[in-house]
Amino acid sequence: MLTSFRGFTAATLAASGLFLSVPALAQTANPADEVDGDGASAGPITLSANAAITSDYRFRGVSLSGGDPAIQGGFDVSHDSGFYAGTWASSIDDGGTGAYGDLELDLYGGWSGEVAPGLTVDTGLLYYLYPTEDLGLDTDYFEPYASLGFTFGPAEATVGAAYAWKQDSLGGSDNLYLYTDLGVGIPTTPLTLNAHLGFTDGTLAPPLLAGTGDDTGLDWSLGAAATLGMFELSVAYVGVEGPAIDGFTEDTVVATLSASF
């Protein structure tokens, strides 16, 4: 779904001189996408799980794994009324500072459903935690989100927003993220072409995290995915506005192998 050093505050960046990462959903995944995956259903309740290995954990274009591979996975439970809850985790790299540790854990819950033919609504709340941090810093924070999904034959489009209000873990500042995703399935093949464009206004903007004074910035990606049964292999070119810092904000190609159960 939709994460961090999401708690990576501007104050921490300025104090440490380090430019680590920022905020599940790597292009933490949209929680609704995970919930809607294949799973075991018992009456009105559906249980599902997902696991992945990625060459670089990129969230909103910024690396949270220091440019190195990451292991990810999560569990979800959904009700046929549309309500869902789940958890998702990823290995991270905080540059050896101990400020965030080596694990990001996301908890979320919300509602998703089709409100008209071809139109889906998804809204909920994310909570980002760093349970292995060892400096006693306030790094956890909340972020509500909402999106609209549109289906046109083999094509799908999503527009959405996520807003983190002013919290101590964000340096007393807030952060707004707006995005749109496009996907087109190629008929008679397991391939899907994907495109993403996001805009951040606030303390988690890529240029600000990279050391400039600009608290707004774009991120984008272009890629393709192939699905075979429970497995999916995806490759995407990812980039952001601002200085290109190796292992953090430089443009890169990300490959991910995932499975849904």
From TrEMBL:
Pfam families: Gcw_chp. It comes from the Bacteria. This is Porin. The lineage of its organism: Bacteria, Pseudomonadati, Pseudomonadota, Alphaproteobacteria, Sphingomonadales. Residues 1-26 form the signal peptide. Keywords: Signal.
